[in-house]
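To assess whether the prediction recovers the assembly geometry, we first specified each molecular entity separately, as shown.
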Amino acid sequence: MNQTGIGARVRRLEDDRLVHGRSRYVGDIKMPGMCDVAFLRSPLAHARIKAVNKPEGLESRILCAADLDGVRPIVAESTLPSYRNSEHWPLARDKVRFVGEPVAMAIGRNRAEAEDLLEEIDLRLEALPPVINGAASMAGDAPRLHEEWDDNMFLKLAVGQDPANAREKADVVVTRQFRTARQVMNPMEGKGVVAWWDYRDGQLVVTTSTQVPHVIRNGLSRCLGIDESLIRVIAPEVGGGFGYKCILQPEEIAVAWLAWTRRKPFRWLEDRREHLTAGANTREHNYSVTAYADQRGRLLGMDAEVTVDVGAYSVWPFTAGLEAAQAGGNLPGPYDFREYRCQVNAPATNKPPFTPYRGVARPGVCFAMELTIDAIAREVGREPWEVRAENLVPADAMPYVNVTNKHYDTGDYPGSLMRAKDAIGFDQVRERQKTPEADGRLIGVGFATYTEQSAHGSKVFAQWGLALVPGYDEARIKLTPDGGVEVRVGIQSIGQGLQTTLAQVASEILSIPADRIRVLMGDTGTTPYSYGAFASRGIVMAGGAVSRAAEALAERIRVMAARALDCTPEQVRLEDDRVHGPNGSLSFAEVGHIWYLRPDELPEGDRHGGLEVTEAYRPKTDHGVFSYASHAVVVAVDPRTGKVELLDYVIVEDAGKVVNPMIVEGQTIGGAVQGIGTALFEEVTYDDQGQPLSSTLADYHLPGAAEAPHIRIQHTESPSPHTAHGIKGVGEGGAIAPGGAIVNAINDALAGHGVEINRIPATPERILEALLGAEAGKENAS
Amino acid sequence: MKPVKFDYLPARDGAEAVRLLTEHGDEAKCIAGGQSLGPMLNLRLARPAVLVDLHRAEDLAGVEESRDAIVYGGAVRHADFEDGRVPDAARGMLPLVASRIAYRAVRNRGTLGGSLSHADPAADWVCVMTGLGATYLLRGKKGVREVAAENFIQAAFMTELAPNEILAGVRVPKLSDSARWGYYKFCKKVGEFSQATGVVVVDPERGYCRVLVGALDSPPVPLEPVAEALAADGPDGAVAVLDAAVDTALGDYPRVNRQLYKVAVRRALAQIGATQ
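The predicted structure of the complete assembly is given in tokenized form:
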């Protein structure tokens, strides 16, 4: 039995350096002569740039758009019908379109000096009326963000068909409006980039805090107009990505341009205020949902409209259309019904460009769908779990193609819900609710079930219109002379423990313990191509590539060892950290020794390919594979203050074959806590001029340790038939369901008060306002 | 964000601090724990040319106890109260309040005088010291003058302190053995600023009774009808007049906020025995 193979609870190889503060992030990199860059950012949401006047003598240290010779704008192509591109210049030209948009940059010996220089710039703006939300953007007389367009729409898409039969047959019709707040992703480490010219290699080296080094190399090549061979992108340790570090950013281009043109090191480190303003770029959805059901609450069809407030520009490579298109495609979730229509709108607004965040659209659609299910249950007078269970795709229907052509591969969705219901002690909660609590709080229980499409295949990405379609991931693997292993992958670790899990995959095949397997990543100069770490694709795609490469290496080891063991390659087995033949065995070091140090022992004319192999991998199908989970939560709501406490939280998840249960648990808990932020705390607020009002962490509330409940996790395993080892992705899932589960629980608690919350975050103010409103309504009526 | 350039001048004692402040006039600002000023400097909202650091001034970090009061130096830290390194004048109130100020990292550095001088209406000490009827000792060029807590804050973030004065100490009257107090703050999450604070201090032996609502847009507001009812009829009597008193005092606030203020005071009253 391999103690460090697939399925083992191996301790993360990363943690020693991380918890001791010994790793190296962008902010730890020092280069001789390095200058700091600071950006002058637009103070207005929408304005025409009349002038950027620099003080005399500082022309070389302060730069604006006109100075960036040769730079091209960020343009994210998409093949989705009706989609429009935007031109996003690294430093704004002509107009600024959100508060925080970079207009100029200053170069200082340190950051403080660079910020001093920014204060010397005389920026002349002519204010234009701002477009501050999706509805305002779609109004006929709305000011245009991009004046060459004839309206403000990045995308308008009609998904599905009119659910006419469902409407006709329905016993019950439920209509609701749902709303999710704009959020900021807030990785612990902000964005940062250090770029310099490497004279020996003749390359521009861009060290950047990114999830996707190979993709950034491609993007920089486009926007700087130089060959990819002239660019090396290195992602050092990255302190959280969540999607924020998955796109090409204007500051990356500007700093790279400085290093390219001046042949010196330059650095920019985002601070938290920049992040909370210019990075306020995600999650904001508005839904209008009408669901048709029979008298038992069985869903017949849905008619929906979703509007995603996508901000001012289209991000590269994911576009301003991806989130909205995914929302339209994913709203039906894990449910079995056959009639569906969704109008998808992606209007431009004077806010930072929308960037997909952990869960991509699904935290919004799950919130809307799960609240709809509970609303149906209340309408038909049944328990939400019953109605939910009867509507979920049953296990015996797998594989199942849903109403938006998602191919659900394996799993028991109702089974996971029932396990969650038992684990949360549903019956005891219902019993407890019969007696008022001593402290006057109201108890509620809620559920949410979702699917998480992971490792979306090439065709799925192509359907979303992306010009850059992720597909194969590559891995290179090498047996070292002393019998150790080096794995090189282009994917990047952003905290998810891939060095551990990829080592486990290699260990599983080679039988070499994981602690002798080095996984090297995140450097386009030393690793084969990968699209990077996003969309819960890492362990499926890079894991598959490592698996494939390790198999190929194992084959070469068998061939080499067969000569020494005097047998055929087919007779050689790799087991227990040794290479076995019928009549003896070798250590891996002995195999390495032959190839690297004593090739004279090999027969002359031998054409063995060596002990280093690169392989590419793509799953058998292009549909993506579906993880899923059910969340169950018990809340206590204080009706006098509106404050919510999470008393208990259960997650029953299924990520196919689990490579390392501890890592799945860590990912699930981390995601769930971010989801708790979405559900209860996090919200970017703006005034009517589009000024962000939450520009520090005193105003933008993140969940902390005290707000995170003890989350109890149960694993189930439904391996995918389509992937290496049956693995599915799990990185995003935890963040998807908390909004739905928690607000369902809040509404369960408030059921006796004639109140329904349909908007997140469910802050004390919102809950209290609803309760006071209901009370006032009652008084008026009586 | 990095601060604009400033000169850093550590003061050995309160007298030197006053001298340095006088010398540099409006250009200078005091820093002690830096937990409020630090972020303002980094955001460039505060742009002093000179920072006079009080945190090494030993005479500001001391405590003087007399028969009926304790004077806490302005540079005593929140954690000193929390950990019992300084005596408590208020029968458990000061350590408890201190232990719930922001986060431990803030409490390790933040000071009593710094918090009061910053004059954020939501700050714990601002409400509690007003509730206890404390007196602030403002040290300037001509010596020390005394200002009652309720007269110290003029408006949010504005105080009686002259540019060359420091808040050298806080005199807190000792509560009698029969005194009782209640303190409740409503925070969205642990460690965040209060959105509604209720303070109740009743000390019959000294004929002292005060009920305050805090974390307003302005300094804490005494709810005199509630205090009178508390003195006359006890906690339940106070609760009976509470809602009307808050509606009168805070009529301009939205109903959600008024509700939270009522709850904060009611829960403070519950701590001294209100049953409603």
